[in-house]
Amino acid sequence: MKYSRPIFILLFLSVSLTAVAFTQLFAQQERHGIKFPLGLDPDAFMVPEDNPVTPEKAELGKMLYFDKRLSKDGTVSCASCHDPQLGFTDQKPFSEGFLGKTGNRSAPSVINSAFSLFHFWDGRAPSLEEQAKGPMENPVEMAHTVEGAVKNIGAIPGYKPYFKAAFGTEEVNIDRIVKAIATFERTVLSGNSPWDRYIYLGDKTALSPEAERGLVLFEGKARCTQCHVGFNLTDNIFHNIGVGMTAEKPDLGRYLVTNDEKDKGAFKTPMLRDLQKTGPYMHDGSEKTLEEVIDYYDRGGNANPWLDVKMQPLNLTTQEKADLLAFLKSLEGDYVPVPPPKLPE
C-alpha cells in the first residue's frame, strides 16, 4: 500500500511520538523531589500522606540511619546490617546485633524498598516507618526501648536544628525519628540496568547474547516470572519455596504473623535488582551464590506440605543455567552508595 507524502509524514510522526512517549514514561523522572532512574515507576512509589518526602527530612533520616546511638549500647545502627557499601545488606547469612547476638534471617536490602507493600521477610510491617521502629526494641538487634532511643537522640544538641528544619520544631519523638529514617530509605533507588535499557529504550546492545537467552528462559522455561514480575521483579506477596523446611524446627515465616495454615514456611518474594551485591541469598542466607540459587530452583526446592505449587523441577541444561545467570547479572543498576555522614554532637 502506498501513502501520499503528507499521510506518510503524519504516520511517521505518530510512531515517533509514541516511541518518545514510551521512552519518557520509563526514562528518568522527578517526583517527590526524587529523580527516579530508568525503569522505576513513580506511580508505584509508596509515600504516606502524613510523611511527604522533603530534602530536610531525608538528610535527617540519613544521619539517624547511621547513628549507633539509637541502640542500647551505642554499637548498632541501621547501617550495621543494611550497609550502603554492601548493597544495603551486610552480606552475611545472619546479622550481628547487640552484644554480637544473631537472629535467624538474612538482612534484606533497602534498595527500592519504597515500592514494597510489606516489610521484613514475613511482612509484619506495613510501612517503612513501622519497619524502622522494629529493630530498636528487638533484643537481638538494637536491644533498646523506644523511650530510650528517643532520649538518646533528644540529648544530642546538634540534632535540634535538623529536627526543626525537617519538622518545624526541635521536638524529638519516635514518630519523627522513624519518619525521617523511612524518608531517607525512600531515596535509595536503583534502576537504569542493562535490562532496563534493553526493555525500555530498545537498546539491543545492552544485553549480551547469553543474557538475552537468559531473559527468554526467565520468562519461559525457568518460570521465574510466576513470582518475579513487574519493574521491580517481585509480586510483593509470600511463597513457600521450601527454603529451610528440612530443619528440625523450620522458620514458619508469614505464618508467625497470620496464624494461617497456608502461610507456613512462606516468605516475601524479594526484588531481583542488584543481586550481585546482596548475597548470600534466601531468607536464611543458605544459598551463597547465584549459581546455587539457580540449582536450588532447578531441582524444585525442598518438599514439604506447604510447598508452593509453582515450585517444580526445571530440568535446565548447563548452558541454560549459564544464560540465566548472565541475565540475572544484567539487573545491576547504577546506584552509587552514600558515604556515612558526619553525625551531630
What would you note in describing this structure?
A two-stranded antiparallel ribbon has the order 1-2. Strands 3-4 form a two-stranded antiparallel ribbon. Helix 9 packs across helix 12 and helix 11 crosses helix 12. The N terminus is likely disordered. The termini are far apart. The protein contains twelve helices and four strands; from the N terminus they run αββααααααααβαβαα. It is mainly alpha-helical. A hairpin with a 2-residue loop joins strand 1 and strand 2. Helix content is 35%, strand content 3%. It is globular and about 60 Å long. The protein folds into two domains: 132 residues, Cytochrome c-like domain (Cytochrome Bc1 Complex, Chain D, domain 2), CATH 1.10.760.10; 136 residues, Cytochrome Bc1 Complex, Chain D, domain 2 (Orthogonal Bundle).
Provide a brief overview of the structure:
The chain is an all-alpha fold and 345 residues long.
